[in-house]
Structure formats: C-alpha cells, structure tokens
Write a structure and sequence with these properties.
Helix content is about 30%, strand content about 25%. It is flat, with a radius of gyration of 31 Å.
Length: about 350
C-alpha cells in the first residue's frame, strides 16, 4: 500500500515538473516570437523598413519627374503632388524650402530638402527653422505664440514665448518665500527672494509646460543657460568696503547666464518692447552702495535691485518688483506639425500649429 502511495506521489511530482517545464518552454517560445528580438518583431521591423524604402523611392521618382517637367527649376510641393497623382501614389506634399510628404495610408512622413534628399520625418528638428513662428498649447489650455529660439544638436528645438505670459513678483513680497522666513525682516525676505530667484523663475516656466510636447524639466525662463537652466554662480559676493563687512557671503554672486539667450533673441528679432525678467543676477558695487539685482530686458539699468546696502551707517533696504515672464520650451523630438491649417511659420498669423 505504501509503495503504491509512493509511486503515485512520484508520478504527481513528475507531472508537476513536466507542466512547469512545458510552461517555461512555452514562455521561451512566446518571447522568441514576440520579444524585442523575436521572430515576429524582426519580421515586422523588416516589413516597416521595406515599406519605408518603397515610400522613399516613390518620393524620389516623383521628384525626378518634377525636375524633368520644370526643366531644372526648383521643385515645389505642388509639382510633387502632381507627380504623385500621375503615379497613383497616396501622398501629399506641403511646405516651401523644406517640403514635407505625408503618406495617408501608413501615416509616415518624410522631409525633402532643396537637393532632393529624402529623410524620414521623425524629428521636429527636421522641420522647424530658427525664427519660425509656432503656437505652443500650454497645459492650461491656452496657446502661447512663440518663435524658434534654437534648433541644434546641443539645445534641441527650443521655443521662446514672443510675449510675456504672466507676471512674477520678486523681493520682500515674493509669494514663494517660505513660512519660516515670512515672519523675519524685510531684508531677510528680500535676501531669500534674491538667492532663490533663478529657481523661482525657472519653476514658473514648468507651470506652463504641456507634457504632450515638452518633457519634465525642459521648460525654463528666458535668460537662463539653454541646456542647464538651474545653473548659477556657486560663490557668494564679498567686498572689501567696510560697510559690507556684516553682509559678505550672504548673497549669491552675479553671473552672465543671460548672454546666449539675449544675443539669440536679437538674432531672431524677438527681444520685445515690454519689460520682463531674465533668469540671472547682477551686482553693482561702489564705495557708497552695493545693489543686488535680477536682470531684466531693461538692460540699461542692469535689471531691478531687490535690495541694497549703503555706506550710511551700513543701512540696508529692500525692494519688490513685479515684471513680465517669458517661458522657453524644449520640444520632444517626436512632436508633429499640424498641416491642416496651412501655416508656414513665416508670420504670427500663419504660425505653425502642433499636433
């Protein structure tokens, strides 16, 4: 009897082991078919690659036909569309200097440059040019009219708000001052606002960032470092003037973070006529006063001083200012342009729309 029970137990264990082995083998088989390097995945990738090559070839054939008909003149989107129609190709061309071709069946898009080179349109950098107008839908449901500030390998595609979208208060009435500082002197509050201004301004940009188009941490205030927005001077200001002896090492030092943005804004004609903050600091010092400022577009005055310390009995004063704010958004590479409205990005009225 015991021998029969043992035999049944062994048989049951063997059965369980067999089932486990079969499940493992089944899992391996599924992975080998559908995994990242599986047979089905490789087959799908191979088909997609073949389809892309066929679409590129269709564009090249149409381009060559358009060149022949135009007798060597530049190829236009209309000329390509005429060739697509003649060849029975389900594609639509749009744009001018850089032509975009959309294939309606597959949803793939391509870029054709002035020399006929065809590239898959999978990066917004292939489409937008510095200085183009773009409407950026912020996360609050509003469209912010922007210009392309940068488009390069280091900074990606960055849009700058053409106008100030709001107001930021810095100084002794800064709403971001923490509760443990609020009860302290106006000077202490102004000092906190000054020392934290770069973060305050860049954090403000995040309030407008739309995660559909811009990754977390890729929104910033104009005037900050394009690829490292929270960069700032790591040292604190010191002076040999005697009236500063009690204040040395209390305030963060000046920086030149604004330089690159400021020059680029001039390049694209977008410095603007209204006053707005630039995300960097300046310090003016003399034998009678030292002023700690946050730069603004009013560069003649080197910005607005949040506090100053004077030689008259080491008198310290505080200030508060509210100024406009211009966010900068770095677009995700896979953002697409909505061509349905016919925008060409050349004017405010024909700004590109984002899908």
């Amino acid at each position: 009897m015991n021998q029969m029970k043992n035999t049944k137990g062994i048989t049951l264990i063997a059965l369980v082991i067999t089932i486990i082995v079969l499940l493992i083998l089944a899992g391996v088989a599924i992975v080998s078919l559908t995994g990242e390097n599986g047979v089905l995945t490789r087959a799908s990738d191979s088909k997609n690659k073949t389809d892309e090559e066929e679409e590129k070839e269709a564009i090249a054939i149409a381009y060559n036909g358009a060149i022949t008909e135009s007798k060597g003149e530049s190829v236009t989107a209309d000329a390509l569309n005429s060739q697509f129609s003649q060849n029975g190709t389900s594609a639509t061309a749009s744009g001018e200097e850089t032509i975009k071709v959309d294939f309606t069946k597959t949803g793939r898009s391509y870029i054709v440059n002035a020399y006929g080179k065809v590239e898959k349109f999978d990066d917004i950098a292939n489409y937008l040019k510095v200085g183009d107008y773009v409407n950026y839908p912020d996360k609050n449901g509003n469209k912010i009219l922007c210009k392309v500030l940068y488009n390069n390998e280091d900074y990606g595609v960055q849009l700058v708000s053409l106008n100030a979208v709001g107001s930021v208060t810095l100084g002794s009435h800064d709403p971001k001052i923490p509760s443990d500082i609020v009860s302290k002197s106006s000077l202490e509050k102004a000092k906190w606002s000054y020392n934290n201004a770069i973060k305050t301004l860049n954090d403000k940009a995040e309030e407008y960032r739309n995660p559909k188009y811009t990754d977390e941490g890729k929104a910033r205030c104009v005037g900050s470092v394009p690829d490292a927005p929270y960069s700032e001077a790591t040292d604190y200001f010191t002076s040999s003037y005697s009236y500063m002896s009690n204040y040395n090492g209390m305030f963060k030092n000046k920086d030149n973070n604004y330089n690159e943005d400021w020059n680029q804004l001039d390049e694209i004609g977008a410095r603007g006529n209204v006053d707005y903050w630039l995300s960097c600091r300046s310090v003016y010092t003399s034998f009678v006063t030292t002023e700690f400022r946050i730069r603004s577009s009013d560069m003649d005055a080197l910005g607005k001083y949040l506090l100053y310390i004077a030689d008259q009995g080491a008198f310290a004063d505080d200030r508060e200012y509210s100024s406009g704010f211009r966010p900068v958004f770095r677009l995700k590479p896979n953002v697409k342009i909505d061509d349905s409205n016919g925008g060409d990005g050349k004017t405010e009225q024909t700004a590109y729309e984002l899908k």
